[in-house]
Amino acid sequence: MRRITLFIVSFITWYLLTWPYNFQTGKMDWQIFFVGLLFSLLAAVLFVEVFTRTPLKFFALKRYFWAVCYIPVLFYYMLLANLDVVYRVIHPKMPIRPGIVRVKTTLKSESAKAALANSITLTPGTLSVDITEDNHLYIHWINVKSTEEEEATKSIVLRFENILKKIFD
Amino acid sequence: MNEVIGIVFFGIGVAFNFFGCLGLVRFPDIYNRLQAGTKCVTFGTIFILLGVLIYSGFTSLGIKAVLCLVFILLTSPTAAHAISKGAHRSGVRLWKESIIDRYREEVKPVEGEKADA
């Protein structure tokens, strides 16, 4: 099952990367197509060990729906983050009070935690420094509002956690 | 029309990249610099790639731009994470006016490295 999923994923990536179908002429470049099949097969055989252990998640369509819902949320926070950074950069006095705080997450799977850490890095004023084994994240915060764990968790983690839980867990 | 929108997107992207670089110069320590570097440069590059998509439409070029966009979204924050963790582990202090450093208080340094570099 893992091999089949890896084969499909790598073949889709290959297809997008090379795009053998030409819209204007409507012709298919079968040479590229079959080379892609061959190499996806090779990747599926050789690199299955580094692939996810729960491949069935790739076939749950509901997850893709939530992933599409996640895009505007992430985009909105990224826009806020960038305006925030631009404000702090061009302000002559540089209004920053940085520090590293600790927050807690309830996400379980590895990929969900990775996505959470990445989202935190891309959103206003925060940069994830480390994830520990017992589900704590250390966050570098450019404008520390609260050093308490609960409050920091509320204002950093919770806005992503619910939707990421639906996508990855 | 698509060309005009594409070029506007290029402009926005380059502007954000510029502010990211400005932050890289102005901010005091490595962690704040990474904040500016990652956020603005990722966002600016995403805008440039979206501009490529709009400029060229759904051709093979535009689809490659979307694929690059996904990979940049995945890799750029990960790289920042790796750099910040590495810096902290090897003893780079936070800026002297920082409020708090829970990480330093709670995580023991790796064996064989200097605690106070």
Chain-averaged pLDDT of chain A: 80
What's the assembly state of these chains? Answer: heterodimer
Helix content of chain A: 55-70%
Number of domains of chain A: 2
Principal-axes shape call of chain A: elongated
Tally of helical segments of chain B = 4
**How much helical structure, as a percent, in the residues of chain B?**
over 70%
Task: Provide the β-strand percentage band of chain A.
Answer: 5-15%
Number of helices of chain A: 6
The helix/strand series of chain B, from N terminus to C terminus, equals: HHHH
Number of domains of chain B: 1
Integer average pLDDT of chain B: 81
Characterise the protein shown here.
By secondary structure, chain A is mainly α. Chain A folds into 2 domains: 2-58, no CATH class; 73-168, no CATH class. Chain A has 6 helices and 3 strands. Chain A has helices spanning 2-18, 30-46, 61-90, 110-122, 149-156, 158-168; strands spanning 99-104, 126-131, 136-141. In chain A, strands 1-3-2 form a 3-stranded antiparallel beta sheet. The radius of gyration of chain A is 21 Å and the shape is elongated. Chain B is built from 4 helices and no strands. Chain B has helices spanning 2-26, 30-56, 60-89, 102-106. In chain B, 34% of the residues are buried. The mean pLDDT of chain B is 81. At the A-B interface, helix 1, helix 3, strand 1, helix 4 and strand 2 of A face helix 1, helix 2, helix 3 and helix 4 of B.
Output the keywords.
heterodimer, A: 169 residues, mainly alpha, 2 domains, three-stranded antiparallel β-sheet, 6 helices, 3 strands, 11% strand, B: 117 residues, 4 helices
What is the strand and helix layout of this fold?
The complex is a heterodimer of chains A (169) and B (117).
Chain A: H1 2-18, H2 30-46, H3 61-90, E1 99-104, H4 110-122, E2 126-131, E3 136-141, H5 149-156, H6 158-168
Antiparallel strand pairs in A: 1-3, 2-3
Chain B: H1 2-26, H2 30-56, H3 60-89, H4 102-106
Helix pairs in contact in B: 1-2, 2-3
